[in-house]
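ARCHIVE CARD
Drawer: 12
Card no.: 0347
Subject: one protein chain, sequence and derived structure
Cross-reference: see card 0346
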Amino acid sequence: MRTGDFIITYKQIEFWPLDPKEDEVNIEDLGHALGMLCRYNGHCKFFYSIAEHSIRASYIVSKEFALPALLHDGEETYLSDIPSPLKIFMPQFKVWGNNLQAVIYKKYGLPGEEYKQVKDADRIMLITEMRDLLPSGINPNWAIAKMGIKPLEKRIKHTMSPKIAERLFLARFNELYYNKKLNITNKLLMKYYGVI
């Protein structure tokens, strides 16, 4: 008997978020769902997906941490994205998320742990995104004083559609996991969106 109940994923897999199994994790489900989920609960100037956030994070860490950075929000594929100010009052949700994230990391040969460099990249992206994508913006000096981090110098000027974010998430995964080079179209798209 498994815990909770299942959802049907994009790839038609019965997935039990509260009782995840490695063999039920599918990278195409991650790419699609994270491409369709908007950061900041949708409170940004333009649609900006978790997949795009993850792609960008994977480029600001050293090569050895690029795959964990790409996959760091993978649990949101199955649990969705709950804003941090609310999530801190939901300790059980955090337990489920950590458990699920460990299974996703394990599926792709990564230790099921939190990586400091990935956490730092996540915070850098948070401040960069707040500056560039939230209607009110953010004063970078506040971020430096409060969190001790600076946003990226390069601004986010164009955001990806869900389909493009999914495509580039999967291309980046193939580059990092299978050592496949980005094709010229994907490389040009990465450049257009200011990722590389």
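Annotation on reverse: The two ends are 46 Å apart (CA to CA). The longest strand covers residues 7-8.
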